[in-house]
């Protein structure tokens, strides 16, 4: 069984001191830095690009960086994020004219590849590309904004995705993003997820200067998941 990984979304961090925020949340026990990229075209918001990813690496962040591209088209910017230090690059199938080619492009740049599924996007896009996917990310909110509530129908979709991954025999992580909090993370894990993105659920726990302020929320998440099987 894959280890449970907690991936704070820096979309909800304090951007005025982003390097410090990322350092603190990793020191508190987080595993992956989740990096939300929005282009004001594919989604109605505009966030951050490769220069910020590169700045985190130069700041000294060594943890895996999981870049979620909510941009269309995607191919042009993939090499830039790879050069900036991304480990995972995931994209939405609706944003690529040639999904197989885009997955191959990500891997050719030395990164792990993944597909992202909006709440109403069918998992059938995976049928012919399982051998080229390292991560499946299910959105449990509609993409574009932080702080939204978890969409309950995602639970059934998680179970379906887990079955597909197990049947494939491939080493693929199953990530969930949107409304993940202490009170639902155990149920989400039981449905099949092994990688948990949380933005406001973690970074929303205060803006004070205490570097340990994220310890309790991450500890509570792990305690909630302890003993829960998939």
Question: What attributes does this structure have?
Answer:
single chain; 230 residues; alpha/beta; TIM Barrel; 8-stranded parallel beta sheet
What structural class is derived from the secondary structure elements?
Answer: alpha/beta
> Taking strands numbered 1, 2, ... along the chain, how are they ordered across the largest sheet?
1-8-7-6-5-4-3-2
Q: What share of the residues does DSSP label as strand, in percent?
A: 15-25%
- What average pLDDT do the residues reach? 94
Distance separating the two termini: 8 Å
CATH architecture: Alpha-Beta Barrel
CATH class: Alpha Beta
Number of domains: 1
CATH 4th-level superfamily: Aldolase class I
Q: List how many beta strands DSSP finds.
A: 8
Which fold name is given in CATH as the topology?
TIM Barrel
Order of helices and strands: EHEHEHEHEEHEHEHH
Number of helices: 8
Low-confidence stretches: none
Helix coverage percent: 25-40%
Largest sheet: 8 strands, parallel
Task: Calculate Rg over CA atoms.
Answer: 16 Å
User: How would the global form be characterised?
Assistant: globular
**Oligomerization state of this entry?**
single chain
What would you note in describing this structure?
By secondary structure, the chain is an alpha/beta fold. It has a single domain (5-225), classed as Aldolase class I (TIM Barrel, Alpha-Beta Barrel), CATH 3.20.20. Helix content is 32%, strand content 17%. The chain has eight helices and eight strands; from the N terminus they run βαβαβαβαββαβαβαα. The protein has helices at 18-27, 50-59, 78-84, 99-108, 154-168, 185-191, 200-203, 215-225, and strands spanning 5-8, 33-38, 65-70, 88-91, 112-117, 135-139, 173-177, 195-198. The protein has an eight-stranded parallel sheet. Helix 2 runs parallel beside helix 3 (78-84). It is globular. The model has no long low-confidence stretch (mean pLDDT 94).
